Amino acid sequence: MSALQERQELLHHIRDAVVDYDEEVTVELCSNAIQVGLDAYDVVANGLALGMEEVGQLYEQKEYFVPEVLMCSDAFYAGLQHLKPHIRSDAATGSGQVIIGTVEGDVHDIGKNLVKLMLEAAGFVVHDLGKDVPLDKFVQEQQRTGADIIALSALMTTSMLAIPVVIEKMRAVNPNVKILIGGAPVSQESVDLYGADGYAETAARAVDEARRLLDLPYQE
Ligand code: B12
Predict the structure, then answer these.
(1) pLDDT tens-digit profile of 3-47?
(2) How far apart are CA 177 and CA 170, in angstroms?
(3) Atom of ligand 1 nearest to the CA of 205
(4) 59: Cβ below 6 Å to ligand 1?
(5) Per the structure, how many domains does the chain have?
């Protein structure tokens, strides 16, 4: 089997293991992937994350319900824990500080945690406020740390209404802080509507967008 086929097959199995909520197999396959020399970031983005994406579809088709989704996310996190130490960090480039959190009223944090991981791997210093974060907390943390970017995650059409509230609060005390937004219902349209500075559809793109906001050079 060629290296390319081997990569594709392994990533496919990892995706399936997350969908089958098999924690043990997920970890075992992630370990194999590292052993055969796959890039840990590639395994997260094109294995684990695609598994969660499929889980999202199964949930929407009512084939999976909350218990299955939670077991899948356990498998996802088990794999992630295993891969994390292998993710190459670009810390030397020194990029900027980001405050990240899922807005108040919303407990979805899988995507937010992926964005955090990718930003950290790219050398950003990330302050993670967690999920269901009271809106004033974003502003307080920015003032405490002097961070350059606030990254807001919202997964529901209801919770995304918190985004313009944070933007207004932040602009009132410091109009220079960049606001990066994301999550399934968020789009470029939301950026224009809410007056945010940037948006990204995936965690990998979030890094490019954060760099763009701070005028940092684009890196492969
Ligand atoms: C997993 C999940 C859950 C899990 C969450 C576990 C956890 N720790 O996160 C549990 C079971 C707890 C859950 C609960 C609920 N959920 Co839910 N959930 C999902 C599901 C199936 C998948 C979300 C996910 O993790 N996707 C995988 C990750 C990797 O993708 P992602 O989150 O989109 O993130 C990517 C991008 O969006 C982007 N991104 C994300 N954040 C950010 C931030 C920035 C700054 C940037 C740049 C990018 C970015 O990058 C990420 C990686 O590439 C979605 C369905 C879906 N298709 O989204 C429903 C979904 C979001 N849930 C939904 C609902 C309704 C609920 C509940 C209200 C259900 C209930 N009746 O109790 C509760 C919410 C409680 C609350 N107050 O928050 C609805 C929301 C509908 C709406 N109004 O918009 C959805 C869309 C399902 C549906 N179609 O009905 N849920």
Answers:
(1) 888 899 999 999 999 999 999 999 999 999 999 999 998 899 899
(2) 8
(3) 47
(4) yes
(5) 2
